[in-house]
Fold:
Amino acid sequence: LAARAAIKGGFPVESAYTTADFFILSAELTKTPEDAFLLREATSYKFAQLVQEYTKKKTNKYRSNVIKIIEEIERKLFTKISREELVTVADLNEDYAERIFKEDVGLSIMDYLRTQRIAKAKDLLLNSTLKVGDIAFLLQFSSTSHFARVFKKVTNTSPLEYKEQNYIK
Structure:
């Protein structure tokens, strides 16, 4: 239901269903009614947040080709993907796509992908029962230690420290 509401709010269909798939997998891991209730709340909140971010992005001054790359990154967050594959949606030369992406967003395409994966990891750490290794695997990091290094580089804290510092009891 949250995915349908997000689509009505203008969120891309493919991205909504990809996100819904994640929450369906999370629902299968719930063990208590309290966990299910918290997951329902997290799902509603996350979809509302995604619609808000997407709406802001659409009103931004990004070029249409950059928006296409950003949308492809959102769709492929849980998939192993290269820069070459990402820029094909923009139908541009790789170097030119990289240059305009960096001008508009302020990061390289792969750095942006990495920051989006870490943002998703932060969300998963706080709103799921997944272990750090499972999150690393889901987000296509080569190993748990590689994930932990990248996470620490981006957030200045380890995944477990982040979870402990931000966990609401």
